[in-house]
Design a protein that fits this description.
- This protein is of the alpha/beta class.
- It contains 8 helices and 5 strands; from the N terminus they run H-H-E-H-E-H-H-E-H-E-H-E-H.
- The protein has a 5-stranded parallel beta sheet.
- Strand 1, helix 3 and strand 2 form a beta-alpha-beta unit.
- Helix 1 packs across helix 8, helix 2 crosses helix 8 and helix 3 packs parallel to helix 8.
- The longest helix is centred in the C-terminal third of the chain and has 31 residues.
- The radius of gyration is 17 Å and the shape is globular.
- The chain starts with a helix and ends with a helix.
- The model has no long low-confidence stretch (mean pLDDT 93).
Length: 197
């Protein structure tokens, strides 16, 4: 039997290794995409299934909350996972593969951003959302795991967490969320300092 201490150390090492393989340049680039979307008053939509749905909600909440302040424009950001009534109605009437795409039909505009979070990169509803967003000239970003799946091939930009362990991938995606949000906050602070100068 593996000792608890050994299991903990092994898990943390796998997580550390996966995070260490991620390019800081890619993270910076995604942070700049978010910052540009904010400055252009574009909307950012975030989607995912299961644990990735939780990360999508978390990211949307973090980005929205960090633009609440005196004399600040709010970030137009939302997770498409959060309206359970709409999601279940779409799943029941049209099919689960379309629950994100159908919401985007009402909302997405050219210049908007879709962030698709998926461990496998092969979820049909995520892929349909990416394809529809691109058909509307929106920018698509994948936060992916495993080998990236089909999403890595079709998303405009992506960050791949190189692990076949769902837990490690989902943990790493949450870390990436916090890094991206922190980058965005720092860019806002730079902007405020420049405006005050």
């Amino acid at each position: 039997m593996v000792a608890v201490e050994d299991h903990v150390a092994d898990y943390l090492e796998r997580l550390r290794s996966s995070l260490g393989d991620i390019s800081t340049g890619q993270i910076r680039e995604l942070g700049e995409i978010l910052y540009r979307a904010y400055n252009m008053s574009a909307s950012v939509f975030v989607v995912g299934n299961g644990g990735s749905a939780s990360t999508a909600s978390h990211m949307a909440a973090d980005l929205a909350k960090n633009t609440i302040g005196p004399h600040m424009r709010r970030f137009r950001v939302m997770s498409l996972n959060d309206n359970v009534s709409l999601m279940t109605a779409l799943a029941n009437d049209i099919g689960y593969d379309s629950v994100f795409r159908e919401q985007l039909v009402n909302l997405i505009q050219p210049g908007d951003v879709l962030i698709a979070i998926s461990a496998s990169g092969n979820s049909p509803n995520v892929l349909r959302a990416i394809e529809y967003a691109q058909s509307r000239h929106a920018q698509t970003i994948g936060l992916l795991g495993f080998d990236g799946g089909r999403a890595a091939q079709i998303a405009d930009k992506s960050i791949l967490v190189r692990s076949n362990d769902y837990g490690v991938v989902e943990d790493a995606h949450l870390v990436l969320n916090h890094i991206l949000v922190e980058h965005f906050k720092m860019r806002l602070q730079e902007e405020k300092a420049w405006q005050a100068a």
